[in-house]
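Weekly sync, protein design subgroup
Attendees: M.S., D.O., the rotation student, P.L. (late)

Item 1: inverse folding check
M.S. brought a backbone from last month's batch and wanted to see whether the design step gives back something sensible before we order anything. D.O. pointed out we never logged the input encoding, so this time it goes straight into the notes. Structure tokens as presented (222 positions):
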């Protein structure tokens, strides 16, 4: 009986990653369908566009989707030409003149700039750091990202903003201001840091943190 259970668990462990992958893909597909499917607000807009070409709701949705993708493609072609600056300026001019909407637009534009390689390599412009809560020594160490080398003075002490990703989805996390003495440079790239969080710590740092490292204000490399 013990042998049977062990063999069963061996087979289960082989299939478990496949099952989890299928479940995640199915969840992602359901999530996307709720927002862009024919029954969503966005889907009804696409259907309204396609109704001029077909009376079938499903066919109208497909036609509207094709029209949207084609429009985005041609917009991308225009952006890749010399018209990029003109188009961006025109869109900025219009969006920034709408009350409240302008604030949301500015926030989303900053977020897009983080993941756009054409605009400063996004996350690569950040610096991986070790944050020792309570200071180096017998304290918890956390891998984080330093968005900018500029400090904020609170009272008589300098503080730095750090982004602590969440595992296993590092695009989330928290923003914390910590004393400068708590932070030390991490001898790794952003890709390695993200790999550590995605693997939930299974893939650890290749090098130990340098406790006696250069001041964080000298962190200019990514």
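Designed sequence read out in the meeting:
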């Amino acid at each position: 009986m013990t042998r049977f259970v062990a063999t069963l668990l061996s087979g289960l462990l082989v299939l478990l990653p496949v099952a989890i992958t299928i479940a995640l893909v199915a969840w992602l597909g359901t999530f996307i369908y709720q927002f862009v499917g024919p029954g969503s607000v966005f889907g009804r807009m696409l259907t309204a566009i396609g109704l001029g070409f077909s009376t079938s709701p499903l066919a109208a949705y497909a036609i509207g989707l094709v029209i949207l993708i084609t429009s985005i493609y041609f917009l991308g072609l225009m952006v890749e030409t010399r018209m990029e600056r003109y188009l961006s300026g025109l869109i900025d001019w219009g969006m920034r003149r709408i009350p409240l909407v302008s604030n949301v637009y500015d926030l989303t534009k900053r977020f897009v700039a983080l993941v756009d390689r054409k605009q400063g390599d996004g996350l690569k412009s950040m610096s991986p750091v070790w944050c020792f809560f309570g200071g180096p020594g017998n304290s918890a160490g956390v891998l984080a990202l330093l968005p900018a080398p500029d400090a904020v003075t609170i009272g008589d002490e300098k503080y730095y903003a750090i982004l602590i990703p969440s595992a296993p989805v590092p695009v989330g996390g928290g923003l914390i201001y910590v004393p400068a003495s708590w932070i030390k440079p991490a001898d790794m790239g952003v890709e390695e840091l993200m790999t550590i969080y995605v693997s939930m710590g299974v893939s650890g740092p290749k090098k130990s943190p340098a406790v006696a490292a250069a001041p964080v204000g000298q962190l200019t490399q990514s």
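Discussion: Residues 2-36 form one domain. The mean pLDDT is 79.
Action: P.L. to compare against the previous round before Friday.
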